[in-house]
Structures
1.
Amino acid sequence: MLGAVDLACERGGRSLFRRLSFALRGGELLRVAGPNGSGKTSLLRILCGLLSPTAGAVHWDATDIRRLREEYSRQLVYLGHAAAVKDDLTAAENLRITCTLAGLSVSSREIQAALETFVLDDLPVKRLSQGQRRRAVLARLVVSESMPLWLLDEPYAALDAAAGRLVEELIGGHVARGGAVVYTTHQDTRVGASQVIDLDA
Amino acid sequence: MLEAARCIVVRDLLVAWRRRSDVATALLFFVIVTSLFPLGIGAEPDLLRSIAPGVIWVAALLSCMLSLGRLFAADHADGTLEQLLLSSEPLGVIAAAKACAHWLVAGLPLVLIAPLIALQYDLPAPLYPVLALSLLLGTPVLSLIGAIGAALTLGLRGGGVLLSLLVLPLYVPVLIMGAGSVEMAAAGLAPDGQLLLLAALLVVAAAFAPWAIAAALRISTE
């Protein structure tokens, strides 16, 4: 499904990683490890096409993602470092908008169910705490079963134990269904990663 | 494709509605600037009548600039811009929707309020439709061209000033033709030529600006 060939990334004149290659098939979980500033977020941004690598290429089903563009975007869910929710809109409004933009058609009942899974009231996001904000973002995973590739940047950050378990279950379920997941984390999780890339090495 | 574009327009209008004060500042700026001139110049109807088109158009340009800085900066700050870049539709469509929402929030109110402003300048009533029509054709061009500048200066320090320096010179043709059409009508000539040129500018901008905005966004978010 997802392949990286000889990826290299330079940010601000500093080389973050070089000659990075891997292949990820459906049903596999790839964990990107490394200390702060080692290029985990940059790698994820390269994988989803937001950032061009200094060298190398990312392939989706053996085609360069730069040629696929939005065709590739339709296959993936990327949850970045920033919360990607509008403060003035409610959690449900935010979720509906993100889904429409991603090309997913979801009913209001599914959206309501996704928010209930993460125990969220339908309040304007600016009135939610940091952790609740993350929950509002992660609720998207509940309705994104049909997207084959999930790219998650620090999905466990700012979450309490219950929400963390929920995310583990969602990731586990997605992998079991044959989806591919790439994620970065500092924490130890119970979901066993089938591949680990350590950017420190 | 239209679904995604409609979604963005609705989203931006909803955000604007919940932050009404932001929208009101740009509109109030337009009203106050255009009201300062009659106050400063005094009761000289002939002079006021002759400067009215130019002053109203320049104020519209500046008022449009005020809200441009926030066009992509807010989305950039909260991370929603990344999701827009990764949406299921071509980025050009998304960019066009953003510019359209900007015009509905920052341009359309100016068109509606301009005849009221013209009253302060003692502009003859037959000129109101010409003024409104010129703004109706011209302000979308301001939003489209301005969005290119806003995308290019995204995330730069002092981006606001740079944005003005970048975009205002590009506004000159719109200003000349917009104000020119009203002046022509005031002189008793047919303003059709200028208005048609404005319409042509709008068509060209609507066709090409979205792709330029998309390219600029990709560059500045790397």
2.
Amino acid sequence: MENVANVTLPGLAQQILVGLSRTTILFIVSSGLSLVLGVLRIPNLAHGSLYMIGAFLAYSIATLFGGGSTGFWLALVLAPVGVAVISLAVERGIFCRLYDREHLMLLLFTFALMLFFRDAVKLVWGSDYRSLAAPSLLEGSFSIFDLPFPRYNLFLLIVGPLVAVGLWLLTNKTKIGKISRAAAVDRDMVGAVGINVSWVFAFVFIIGCFLAGLGGALVAPTQNITQGMDHTIIMEAFLIVIIGGLGNIWGALLGALIFGLTDSIGILVWPQFAIVFPYVAVVIVLTFRPKGLLKATW
Amino acid sequence: MVVGLGLVVLLVVAPVFLSRFYVYLLALILVTGLLATSLNMVLGYGGMYQFHHAVFYGIGAYAFALMLSKTTLSPVFAFVAGPVAAAILSLVMGLICVRLSKLYFGMLQLSLGSLVWAVVFRWYSFTGGDDGIHGVPMPPFISSITSSYYFTLIVAGICLCAMYLIINSPFGRVFQAIRDNPERSEAIGVNVRLHQLVGLVIAGFFGGIAGVLFVAVEGSVFPDLMFWTLSLEILIMCLLGGWFTFLGPMLGAAIIVTLRTIVGVYTAYWTMVLAIVLMVLIFFLPQGVLGYLQARFLTPGTVVLREEE
């Protein structure tokens, strides 16, 4: 534990900022997962695969447009849209036939989907890793307490709250958002008043998967785009959703904060076991509040 | 009965005819099948969503491998250490998880299991970290593939008989009653949580034995043994074979392990094949292969039916 002595205040601040940027990605991905879980009741294991596809798509689109700044911004918009289109096909083709099955079956079905996407990505993009450069506007870093902090991370810190507010507006202020929240509580009743619940579900599923794709596109410049991305993120996103409260968007934010910060502070305190810290946090939360910190929708 | 006896005889004489590779494959099927059957004790017969069962497999394997490679004690202790370590871990995890049900139980269990995995994955000085431990020194009587196959066959056979007896014991009956209706069981005076906890410990114990057998066959351990994807894979084996039948998980394990090995020879995309098989299965055979065969060819009375909640 000799590393503890080296923790300085600026170092801590820097690490917290890094943790918060990580939180942004985690929040965007897990809020999508939470939305799908809350309204459709599908524990979508393929969510992480869509995140991975989002990252690979972002790479391909950016490369297609020359790899410069324009390419990046286009990729940031088009990659999530691409993921949403894939998810529309999956939802209309398969999931809409399985809604009345048991949760375990749905879970296993999404696991099958995860395996499928995994090999599909290997088929399309090969097994090498890819990397995507941040646009020139966001390249480089500026200094906080004399320590460098990448500009791109600051960009992430702005995007996170924007997405949160956007989601809140969508679910609370628009008609379709209100309908989908109603469908989360009682789908039969929503159907009884003459609303096509099936299409409401499709809409929610697409929004959720769009968020996974957006998370993947956003994370692309900060790390290598690899085959294993889906495994790591899906487990993290699931745990975040569970500790936040199933289907609760603000719960996803809170869970992402806990996960992101314990991870980044863990790296500072005890690097070797940094990955253990978030899991410990999750276990502590669930031991005392087994149904999550905030109110679950079901 | 005749089919069963024939199968046992076939398994016993198999190494005489088969090449080393197929003997190894058979041993792997037995090990994985034992693991899946132990999971199915709590999943199919207990109705508990044990999402991270592989952690007991891994702990059993690690305890066994560490005892053999880091201590000079007699191998007997190593054989005992594996299942006991798994049972103790199962007890601790069970105590934390058992007050929850269904998806929440599964999720807490999954996060606890991932915690154990993360520790093993990073503790380089003790567990070898992500490299694992290779070339575990084996006791002489299981040093060749044929002898380790027979060892696996005998142990797996004993374990299957034991599990069958447990499931059909008064305890097992109460356990199944809890699955079908926890409230009613509680009302007639059954201690639901205690029964579930005991069930979890038993399942963990047998999972640990499967882990020991894996090391006996493979000679090495690595953290992937307790990664959550393996847990879901064995869950799928239960489902594929039929999770309301005793031998279903064994059949599921045989199908998936064989599929992986055979398809893996021809294409690198074997998971895609597995995925498609699974999707078809969920659509058309939600009872599993053995469950379907039972429902089709045996009298309808023997099929376990379950009410929807």
